[in-house]
Write a structure and sequence with these properties.
Blueprint (H helix, E strand, L loop, with lengths): L10 H13 L8 H13 L6 E5 L3 E7 L5 E4 L4 H7 L12
Antiparallel strand pairs: 1-2, 2-3
Length: 97
């Protein structure tokens, strides 16, 4: 997965992923500070759950969650991917693609 060719390739995407990798946060152990930020966000917004996620080339990785959940999800099924790619759907700003 990490470092593999991606179907989401573009110059902007390459810069975004390079910046993410420079942060060295992917696949790291839980950190008290990030867990505290996520818990604060959930409390302030009165949400039952909150997460801090990072999107690399092919996955959404959960860095922190107020319920302790960790893991990853395939990028192509996430709403974050739709946002990053700027995909428009019919009835919501234009044609798909």
């Amino acid at each position: 997965m990490p470092g593999s060719p991606s179907r989401f390739a573009s110059a902007d995407e390459e810069r975004r992923v390079a910046t993410l990798n420079a942060l060295a946060l992917l696949d790291t152990e839980p950190e008290r500070e990030f867990d505290a930020l996520v818990a604060l966000a959930a409390e302030m917004l009165d949400c039952p759950s909150a997460m801090m996620t990072l999107i690399d080339r092919d996955r959404l990785w959960i860095k922190a969650a107020n319920d302790g959940e960790r893991g990853e999800i395939a990028r192509d099924v996430t709403m974050c991917n739709v946002t990053i790619q700027g995909i428009r759907t019919p009835g919501r700003g234009g044609p798909v693609g």
